[in-house]
Amino acid sequence: MESYFRPSSLPDALAALAARPLLPRLASPWVPLAGGTDYYPARVVHTPDEAVLDINALPGLRRIEARADHWWIPCLTTWTDIIETSLPSIFDCLKQAARQVGGV
Asked: What pTM value is reported for the model?
């Protein structure tokens, strides 16, 4: 069974998740990975035994957008994206946090 998959489309990612249900002892579920800066260092001593679903190549999950009645900050948005995007002042605390955690 595959232990690493990097889909290039959302339908491929969803199909992979559907094909590997979360059933104890019957299948190894995918662990979604976006970035990896916390995932890999935490596993330096032990080899990962999870099946990794790397979503970093999925299109449309990074760009911050103003929508009709809200802001869209998708799951692949980086701290640098937060800092560099022109956001309303209501997001100033988020920008301040982005400067304190993670690498720019």
From this structure: 0.71
